[in-house]
Amino acid sequence: MDHSQPETIESWLNWKWQIQNRIKTQEALSANLELTKEERSSFDSCSAFFEFSVTPYYLGLADSKDPHCPIRLQIVPRQEELIRGPFEKQDPLAEETHMPVKGVTHRYPDRALWYLSHVCAVYCRFCTRKRKVSNSFHTPGKEEWNQALAYFRSHSEIKEVILSGGDPLNLSNDKLDYLLGELKSIPHINQVRIHSRYPVTLPMRIDSELCSVFKKHFPIYLVTHFNHPKEITPLVKERISLLIQKGNVIVLNQGVLLKGINDSAEILKELFYGLTAIGIKPYYLHQCDEVWGSSGFRVEIAKGVEIMKQIRGKISGLSVPLYVVDLTGGGGKIPLPSEYLAEKTDHSYIFRNYQDELYEISY
Ligand code: SF4
Predict the structure, then answer these.
(1) Which residues line ligand 1 (CB under 6 A)?
(2) 31-79: pLDDT as tens digits
(3) Which ligand 1 atom sits closest to the C-alpha of 201?
(4) Is the domain covering 96-337 a CATH 3.30.457.10 domain?
(5) Residues 102-111: pLDDT tens digits?
């Protein structure tokens, strides 16, 4: 039976209806997509390891017949998820080993990540945090919030707190208002950032009430996660406009380079231009982290560098994100630039431009 259609458009546009009516079983998924034999046989074994869930809205973007659809590849479990590659880790960024209090990773001196929810509207099959996302045991309660806030207050080197998860926008507006107020009351906190995929998978979450909360705590930086131009729908455009104009939020995007989904210069150019057109600055393009079961998604770094070489210089710099890898083991992010520096002489640098021409400059 198809559970994905509400009786009214108001229900469809209600984010709580979308969350309550997420598709979670193979039976419900089959009512919406023509699953291949491989997809059917992978479903139970993969979702036993990492839960399956998708909103009716996001599933509606998937092609019901094409197993190579870029939306479908992000949400439907596949057999490769069960492979454990030699370099893959359960916690590739060592987030659990830099955790001074439950729910807080403090790895870089001036920044702390705070995991506020372990629920997402959609569980992305390439998720770096599949070790704990979708597991309610990890969701911090009020006592843990207070411990985290006390930690931020007592560490004056922390200039930025990043609300993350799961998806922090899964919290109610009242809770977000309270937490943002507490963080903004700490004198040494310079900026607050929110990492959320809800603008992509649940854009109806962005409504006037949420925007009022953000406006009250201006400035808020929201980093979202679009991976493919198909995700930029009319509803997304409308709600991002609301977020920027009514919430006064600064919106950026960090996507992931994903095999068979966006690993071409043409798709990425369309994505980056599409984001800039609706007011989102492309910030990072991530090399897919070496998390367990991610080999089916990972693009070779050399190919990623080549793709970025085809993009940089060909489209406006405003639309070009930095291609980065977050080093497995917790080494932090490093940029992966093309080889622009061709040679260094005693008196000059010789650079190769985006058209492979050499230019010499002195220093
Ligand atoms: S939205 Fe983010 S945290 Fe949630 S499953 Fe996707 S990648 Fe993981």
Answers:
(1) 120, 123-124, 127, 129, 133, 165-167, 197
(2) 999 999 999 999 999 999 999 999 999 999 999 999 999 999 999 999 9
(3) 1
(4) no
(5) 999 999 999 9
